[in-house]
Specification:
Number of strands: 4
Order of helices and strands: EHEHHHEE
Strand content: 5-15%
Strand order of the largest sheet: 1-2
Shape: extended
Low-confidence stretches: none
Largest sheet: 2 strands, parallel
Mean pLDDT: 90
Structural class: mainly alpha
Helix content: 40-55%
Distance between the termini: 40 Å
């Protein structure tokens, strides 16, 4: 049987449910399946593509205001009585301050050594024998 469920990739709960379904399906011995997550890209495809030649700014703003995944999750949290709007705003404010502090710390830090590029990619013991870099000749052996 060829099955490929589709889910709203802009809805955190829909994504969770789709992944849960896929996990249960696969662990039940039904074989692999392909999950399709339908999303909306706010920006263009690249730096040279502003994304405004094939859609209007109004469309992008409408999607941001009606389909934003973070705002959608906040609405669920409020609707379910898990937190108030004020509490979520405070969490957001604290999170932004934490990120800003981390960015400042990173800016003050020394640049990592090139050898560190290959660390913390895999859990210990799960590394492949080697990994190619950006160039064909750039190979790192674990």
């Amino acid at each position: 049987m060829n099955i490929s469920p589709q889910a709203n990739g802009m809805d955190v709960i829909a994504v969770h449910q789709a992944v849960k379904y896929a996990r249960d399906w696969t662990l039940s011995g039904n074989g692999p399946l392909l999950l399709e997550f339908v999303t909306y890209r706010y920006g263009g495809h690249s730096m040279s593509d502003p994304g405004t030649t094939y859609r209007t700014r109004e469309e992008v703003q409408r999607m941001r205001s009606t389909q934003d995944p973070i705002k959608g999750l906040q609405k669920y949290i409020e609707d379910w009585g898990l937190a108030t709007e004020e509490t979520l705003k405070e969490i957001d404010k604290e999170s932004k301050a934490e990120v800003d502090a981390a960015v400042e710390e990173a800016k003050k830090s020394l640049e990592p050594e090139l050898k560190d590029l290959w660390t913390d990619i895999y859990y210990a013991g799960t590394e492949p024998p080697f990994m190619r870099g950006r160039e064909r000749e750039e190979v790192h052996y674990y």
